[in-house]
What does this fold into?
Amino acid sequence: LSAPVYHPGESLWARFQITGYKFGANNRFSIAYGIRVLKADGAVLYEQPVAASEQRESYYPERHIAGALSLKLQPTLAKGEYTLAVTVRDKIGNQTCEAKQIFKVE
It folds into this structure.
């Protein structure tokens, strides 16, 4: 898909599915994710290392967890290309995964 386009002052919304995490006893899982917004040169514009976390047990294993976030883009944000990075940490499986998506501000 082409990069989504936003305008300064608008809200950026993202939805995603988290899968591939490991289970402990009683189908227990424990995950957390953080977010970063990067400028075109890779410099960090915004960072929240732990934006959300989830842990629980269930009779059946939960194979995916829905994630969502919104960011209010500042009215003074310069036009250009940015990257939204979501980093998921699996505390039971001791693994990390990062997904990145480019977006534009015009």
